[in-house]
Amino acid sequence: MYGRKGYQLVKDFSSGEKGQLKPFNSKLFDETIEECDQNHHLIQSLMRKMQQEGLDVENNRNADHYGALTHHLSLIRNKRCLMAYVYNRAEIVRDLAWRVGLELLDLPSEIQEKLTTLEKEYFKNHSVAIKSYMGKVGIELNVDMVPPKDPYIKVRVLDDIDEGIVLGDKVTNFSRHSMHFVKRTDAERYIARGQMEELTG
Amino acid sequence: MASSNSETGFETLVSKSDVELLKRAWRNEKAAPDILQYESALVDRAKEQIELVEETIDDYTENGIDPLVVSLYQMDLDRTQFLLRSYLRVRLLKIEKFMFHSHKSEEAQHRLSDQEKLFAKRCAGDLEKHFKESVLLKLPDNYQSVLKQSLISEDHDMVPQPHLDTFVVCRSNNFVSLNLYEEGESAETVEMERGDLYFIRYKIVKGEIESGKIDLI
């Protein structure tokens, strides 16, 4: 009661690593919503009680009024916790869209598991908004995330990527452990997904 | 405009003053907590010049000009492209961060380009829908608003706003004299000479940055 579940929900979120998602805690989430409902029922019953006693609900400041006020304050605190939980996760989802890729299927499966259906929906909608902006402006905005030092970099491929990727005007085979000398902008996306690593030595 | 004269050796193809302007706009945008005025003319010019340089580079590669020269041009192009992309990206990220605020504040709307306004509207719509479906529709009736905590709240108290009180580092281009406090309180002023560095609250220098008298670092 009185905001405890909301507090636990927020603690659950902040106990994860910063910038990383944990699986959506639906159990705690639903319990917090239930707490809100309980608070609401109590508010309503207190207001009914005041009305039955013939008191003016708006202005009369008796014990019941303050009881209702306490429930109201707990309720909005839980609401804030719930919204913060959803909002912070949405922020991480947006960050993933920028850094890793705009297609849902590009996300590694460990991350996809942690998102709810609603969050995947939000991811898709947001990607569409970003793509539409990029289309209108005519510039790709999700490459070039770090200031350029060399136009070409050496990379080593870590995972098996599909064969026949077209890079520039060549068709290359990215087999595991092969090293390539590619344009930085092309390699960025693969590096962000952990499929390639840059060789700096 | 861009000048490309292969006989006079290596010259920056994208006009120098435009790159300087873009760099300045980019630095200011990165350092400011709030979104600044959209530099529409500058962005358009930069886009044109980038295209021109890309064509020139393609030409050169076909004609077999020394690859070292071509890659120098390419690096210069990359740098300019990075500036432009990062400028637009920083603005979008600020819009994302203060979604509902950008959408509701008249002043903020003036500083966005048309495409950014559309983006802000869609972002806000998407997030509102996401909130409604995951949380708000499950809550009791009076508490379902995205912007207010409950129907009793007077303002939109659930909308995060940019922190205009953040401290920023700035350098003045001219002699400027500024009021440190709000009107009506003690009128302490700070005077900045040209080239002085100051670590000061953003709110105070906001007007001067917009008019170009002060730069953020």
UniProtKB/TrEMBL annotation, chain A:
One of its GO terms (cellular component) is GINS complex. InterPro entries: GINS_A, GINS_bundle-like_dom_sf, GINS_Psf1, PSF1_C. Keywords: DNA replication, Nucleus. One of its GO terms (biological process) is DNA strand elongation involved in mitotic DNA replication. Residues 48-137 form the GINS subunit domain. SUPFAM superfamilies: GINS helical bundle-like. It holds the Pfam family PSF1_C. It is found in: Nucleus. Residues 149-200 form the DNA replication complex GINS protein PSF1 C-terminal domain. CDD domains: GINS_A_psf1, GINS_B_Psf1. PANTHER family: DNA REPLICATION COMPLEX GINS PROTEIN PSF1, PARTNER OF SLD5. Belongs to the GINS1/PSF1 family. This is Uncharacterized protein. It comes from Arabis alpina.
From TrEMBL, chain B:
Signal peptide: none annotated. Its main location: nucleus. It is found in: Nucleus. It holds the Pfam family SLD5_C. SUPFAM superfamilies: GINS helical bundle-like, PriA/YqbF domain. The keyword Isomerase does not apply. Residues 68-133 form the GINS subunit domain. Keywords: DNA replication, Nucleus. Residues 162-217 form the DNA replication complex GINS protein SLD5 C-terminal domain. The keyword Kinase does not apply. InterPro entries: GINS_A, GINS_bundle-like_dom_sf, GINS_Sld5, SLD5_C, Sld5_GINS_A. GO terms for biological process: DNA-templated DNA replication; double-strand break repair via break-induced replication. One of its GO terms (cellular component) is GINS complex. Belongs to the GINS4/SLD5 family. The GINS complex plays an essential role in the initiation of DNA replication. PANTHER family: DNA REPLICATION COMPLEX GINS PROTEIN SLD5, SLD5 PROTEIN. This is DNA replication complex GINS protein SLD5. The lineage of its organism: Eukaryota, Viridiplantae, Streptophyta, Embryophyta, Tracheophyta.
